[in-house]
Amino acid sequence: MGMEIHPLSHPILNPITMSTQSKSLRLADQLAAHPYAWPGGYPMFGIFSDGGACCKRCAESERESIGTTTGTDGWTLIALDVNWEDPTLHCDLCSTRIESAYTEPDDD
Question: pTM for the complete prediction?
Answer without folding.
Answer: 0.78
